[in-house]
Amino acid sequence: MGKVDGKNWRPQEGARLGEWTLVGRGYLGKGGNGEVWEARRESGDGRYAIKMFGLGKSLKDRRRRFADEIRFLHGYTGEGVVPLVDSHVPEDTQEICWYVMPLAVPLDEALGDTPAEETMLEAVAAYAETLAVLAEQGVHHRDIKPSNLFQRDGRWEIGDFGLVTFPGKGDVTSPAVKLGPVNFHAPEMLEPGDDVDGGPADVWSLAKTMWVLLRRTRWPLPGEYRSGGEYSLQGHIALPWAGELDRLMQRCTVLHPAGRPTMAEFAKEVRACLAEPPESRETASIAEMQDRLAVLTAASHEAAQQAQERRNFLDRLALELDVLFTDLYGVVDGMLQNKFRYYESQPEPSEATRLLPMLMPPWAHQRGAQFTSPDQDGKAAVKFSFVVRLVNKLDDEAEIAFDLRVVHRHHSLEDYPFKLQRTWNAPVGSVQFARVLDEIRAVASNAVPDMLPVILRIVALADDHVPDWYAKARAGDI
């Protein structure tokens, strides 16, 4: 395999590297960047694994990558990574370089034959959280697969950082070499060299690892993940979040790396699947509190109901008054044979009741209309309006005012040759109030014989006629 202190050396039982001795039948595995054996220290404490690389110049890139792995482990002091215990990186490329780590249990062995789905998700969440911390530091593993994942002393840890990339690391991969685990790697890792962003690639590989674990199979499906088919998680796992995990798998395996979630987002979503549901109180205690709430809010609830009933009553009253307006409109428009132009207008002030000066009464409803002759100057007009106002919000006593007048208009001044104003007081919703509304209708109808001659006289005036009242007003007599 290589040399130690200038002498040929091969891994075998009892062979020594520094203070470490290889244990008989202790061969653990082999990878592109080295061979792993179990080893013990002279002091005999604990169980350890030693990873060795000793081939010569023909594989110098792999040796440099092995040295970079040691450099990363030597500088990393966080959790979630199988730690470095000892190492040796000689300058001579013929000499064996090695490092020692605590002996950890491979993921498959740690999970056992029939692991609970929650246990598998717990492992994936822990690995994702470690990779998220590394990603914040610009470190990416780039070789995530089940065989590089471990458990040690009850903690889930990541090992084999032979393809790690980190700030300050040089480009050691030949342009012809492809990186990553063949069955778990992201498609961009097929591109040769070290320029590929390892963050999204780690997300892809860990998502494929999660699928392999949950589906209890050895290899993942190639390419983008598609839910809903035979290989979906839904229908094959008992977790309540199978549908959400299917969607997470889809997001993590989109072909465009920028479309995948970050490792931190992946970890957060998997961890959410493991969160305990919110604690719920006993039904009895909830019922007691609901009863107490009903007692405390009874008065205000009753008041709110009464207020709503009041609003409904006033809405019905407004509709009743709109019917009155329609009836009055019919009286005046019928009198004018539908020949005058109609406009909605504001009610006229009523000095008798002083209704309008109260700007914000507890409740008020007012309507007004104006019918203007069709001539260019609109010299004749009929106006009607009414106002119904509640004086006090605590009772239903209403003030009602009705105004009906004929207008003679000349050069922007007005005269009222006919004017009728009436006022009433009556409780809304009472027979008295209904009689007032009927009386308003009667007053309007009875005024037609008096208004019509006045209107005819005004309309018959010549356009150049100057009324006496206008001349007096201009002279200052009015």
Automatic annotation (TrEMBL):
<dbReference type="InterPro" id="IPR017441">
    <property type="entry name" value="Protein_kinase_ATP_BS"/>
</dbReference>
<keyword id="KW-0547">Nucleotide-binding</keyword>
<feature type="domain" description="Protein kinase">
    <location>
        <begin position="22"/>
        <end position="274"/>
    </location>
</feature>
<protein>
    <recommendedName>
        <fullName>non-specific serine/threonine protein kinase</fullName>
        <ecNumber>2.7.11.1</ecNumber>
    </recommendedName>
</protein>
<dbReference type="InterPro" id="IPR011009">
    <property type="entry name" value="Kinase-like_dom_sf"/>
</dbReference>
<keyword id="KW-0723">Serine/threonine-protein kinase</keyword>
<feature type="binding site">
    <location>
        <position position="51"/>
    </location>
    <ligand>
        <name>ATP</name>
    </ligand>
</feature>
<dbReference type="GO" id="GO:0004674">
    <property type="term" value="F:protein serine/threonine kinase activity"/>
</dbReference>
<dbReference type="Pfam" id="PF00069">
    <property type="entry name" value="Pkinase"/>
</dbReference>
<keyword id="KW-0067">ATP-binding</keyword>
<keyword id="KW-0418">Kinase</keyword>
<dbReference type="GO" id="GO:0005524">
    <property type="term" value="F:ATP binding"/>
</dbReference>
<keyword id="KW-0808">Transferase</keyword>
<dbReference type="InterPro" id="IPR000719">
    <property type="entry name" value="Prot_kinase_dom"/>
</dbReference>
